[in-house]
Structures are given as structure tokens and as C-alpha cells.
Amino acid sequence: MSDNLHQLRCFGCGARIAGAEAQPDFRCAACGDLFEVEFPGWAERRGPERPNPGALKWLWRERRCSGEALDQSGVWRFRELLPILESFGNAVTLREGNTPLYHLPRTAQSLGVDQLFAKHQGMNPTGSFKDTGMTAALSVARERGFKWVACASTGNTSAAMAAYAARAGLRSLVLIPEGKIAWGKLSQAMDYGALTCQLKTDFDGCVRVLTEIVRQAPIYLLNSVNPYRLEGQKTPAFEIAETFDWNVPDHLIVPGGNLANSSALGKGFRELKELGLVARLPRISVIQAEGANPLVRSLAVHRGESLQPVEAHTRASAIRIGNPASWRKAARVIQETCGWCLDVSEAEIAVAKAEIGAEGLGCEPASAVTLAGLKKLRAQGSIAASDTVVLLLTGHTLKDADYTIDFHRGTLLSAEETGGPASKISAEIEGLRRNAVVVDAAAPAVLAALKGQLA
Ligand code: F0G
Fold it and tell me: What is the distance in A from the centroid of ligand 1 to the CA of 318?
């Protein structure tokens, strides 16, 4: 293995082990905490051996014009910062990454922010940000000779894992909470040929069961406790920096579920700064749903030093997680970048999602917490009008079409959640709803439906 190039460092006690020595559940044998991938050679590279930043930036951009599969991947084109494989020939890629950064002009104007962008990770091959992490960790599984891979999931991880496993010719086992994931995601796991088990529990219960399974069977765990996932998920930080010509935005706002993604993006920006590729870090803020907000509570009540699991409830099913594995890593990212951690209500998520839809982009509900969070941060004066803000949209709008249809039909939210028909948020919802209408198959009927709107 490429242990000469990387090692694993325990986030809790600092113990260092070779990559291949990790336990099947990726927990530290000494203290039970999670590992981070570390590149020992980089310490010297901060000195005279420092890579030439200009040459790397040129090489990474140049690869976008290449016909080679690895160069076309938005993860592996940054492979100088991903020495996790013995041979890059073992990489399994669906040409993930290289996702667009869209301007959000209408939303920017209504919030009074000059520069507002969405980095749309839903534009990945399986429709979510999970592909960037999966290409990295599944490639390690293949290189280490595993025949089976597995994950517990709220849907997107399982879709990504099933696709990448199928490409690599590996079998995959998916554990999902019965009735609690969006149909689009479940259909993907089936389509890509996973063995899909729906368990009568929640996501946190699926994680518990899977941890026991990987201790007993030769199955490679692909949940985000696997530190190689985070190596792939750090690369959107490189893309964002590249798009801003290696000047980072002032703020990056990320949804929080199991809290690996915020950790990974923080690691990505930290490494760029350590290697002299960018001058500073953006503030990274994490937004959770009110009913699934263990990190918000941890930071508010325990300064991020301990975390009390909650029983999670939110319609943003991707982030319905009460006991997030990577909370310590995420807390560090928020604290070291001076970001914020907030929660938002079900009605706020629904409105934000419709606004992102009205920009012609769309996203799944969990992604929309970023805009709902930005509105709060703007209202409390934490973000200035002159700041550059990037929202990280994590999933494609078609992942959870039921949610969108229920919103536009007016059946999504209860009166309690909206504060009743006279509330401010109910008025916002009415302004955004675009329910489909049934009309006769005749031009006059369709023109009547258009009445008053053409001007
Ligand atoms: N957004 C979407 C669309 C997700 O699917 C997830 C997590 C998150 C945000 C939160 O990211 O967990 O790194 O904080 N989905 C996982 C899954 C848990 O199983 O698909 P996180």
C-alpha cells in the first residue's frame, strides 16, 4: 500500500497507524475516535521542498482538456494532493467533480449580498456530493482486494456506493432506515445492483448494525467514518479556490448531517493554505435542521467539547441524523475558521428550497438549509453586503421529487409549522407555490390559465 505516502492519525489521541492497519470500523483501538489521513512528507514540503504553486495550478487546469479518465475527474485531477493509492490505475471514476459554480442573482439581490454563488454538488454522476468521496474510498477498497463494500445511509451515500461498486465489479450492501429515505435514492441503489436492506430503525440504528457486521465479515465499510471518503470530499474546496483564481470566498455554508462534508472541506482549505496555494481560509458555517441539530446544541451548550445525541426529525431526510460521527472534526472546522453553526425550521427549509428552484437550479431539501441559514446570518449581521458567499448544494432536486410536489400542492407543511395562514412565512410560501393545473386540451383553456400573467 501507499503507506509511505500517507498514514492515519487519530483525531482524538493523536495515535498514528499505517492505512492498512485500521480496524474494520475505522475507530481508533486506543480511544475510539476517528482517523484523518495525514501526509507525512508534506511537513518538508512546507520548507524548501515546497511544490511550485504556479506549476500545480497550471497542471490541474490543463488536465481538464485531457481525454484521460483520471484527468477528467474533478477529484483525481488533483491527485498530487491525494496520495492514497499505491497505483492511480486502481482508481474507479465516473468523471465526478468539476461541478458548476452558479451565480444566484435574484437571491443575492433580495438578501442584499453582492456576490452569492451555489457550488452545485448535485451535478455529480449520481446526483450528490457523495460521488467525490466514493471515488476515493471505493478505489482504496478495490486496491486492498475487498469483494464487498457496505454503508448505512440516508440515501445518497448508498446510491453513490452502489454505482461505484458496480463500476468496479464489487458487490455492495446497503442498510437504510425503512420508509425514511427518498424514493429517487432507493431506486438508484436498486438500479446499480446493491443488496438493499431496509431496517426498522433510523439512520443511527443502521450505523450500529453495520458496525457489528463489518467486525464479523470481510466487508469494507464506506460510511464517512472511513477517512478516505473525506479525501475525495475535500476536492470541491480545491475547485472553489480555483474558480476564484485561488482567492477563497469569505464564507462557505454547508449542510450538516453526519458532519463529514464540512470536516472534509475544512481539511481541503487547510491543506491548500499549508502548501501555500491560498493565503487564507474561508469562514465555514454548518447549518442543521431544527429537529436534527445535535452540533448546534453541542456548540451552544458544551463549547463543542461533548455531544448529546438527539432523536432526529426533519423532512430533509438526508440530514435526519441524531448522533453524527464526525462532530468533533466539524466543530474544529467551525472554530478554526470562525464560522457559525445554526439550525433552521422546516418552513424555512421549504421556502429556501423553492427559491433555489426559482433560480433555475433546484436542489434537494437538505441542501436548501444553506440558503435558510444564510438568511439568518444576514439578518443577525454576521455576513456583510460586500462579502462573497458560496452555498454548497449537496443533492439534485430530482432526488426527492415528492417533497417538491407536496410543497407546490400546499400539502407539505402543517399550520403549526408555518404559524398559520396569516404568518409572514405563509405569505412567502404562497408567493412561491406553482402548483400544476389541469385544463382542457384546447388553446382557449390554456390561454385562460395564462390570464393576467403574460404582461
Ligand atoms: N446533504 C445531502 C444531500 C446528504 O445526503 C447529506 C448526507 C448531507 C447533506 C450531510 O452531509 O453527513 O457529511 O454532514 N447524507 C448521508 C447519506 C448521511 O447517507 O447519504 P454530512
Answer: 5
Q: Is the CB of 317 under 6 A from ligand 1?
A: no
- Kindly report the length of the chain: 455
| Distance separating alpha carbons of residues 283 and 402, to the nearest angstrom | 34
Q: State the CB neighbour count (10 A cutoff) for residue 9.
A: 17
Closest C-alpha residue for ligand 1 atom 11: 257
Instruction: Please indicate whether residue 156, judged by its CB atom, sits closer than 6 Å to ligand 1.
Output: yes
**Ligand 1 centroid to residue 205 C-alpha, Å:** 16
Residue 413: pLDDT over 70: yes
**pTM score of the predicted model:** 0.97
Which of ligand 1's atoms lies nearest the C-alpha of 263?
13
What share of the chain has pLDDT > 90, as a percent?
95
List the grid coordinates of 275: 502548501
- Secondary structure of 42-102 as H, E, C letters: HHHHCCCCCCCHHHHHHHHHHHHHCCCHHHHCCCHHHHHHCCCCCCHHHCCCCCCCCCCEE
The average pLDDT across 368-372 equals 98
* Pocket mutation for ligand 1, best pick of 154, 287, 393, 398 (most atoms within 8 Å of C-beta): 154
Integer Cα distance of 366 and 392 in angstroms = 11
Q: What is the pLDDT of residues 237-256, one digit of tens each?
A: 999 999 999 999 999 999 99
What gap in Å lies between CA 225 and CA 26, rounded to an integer?
6
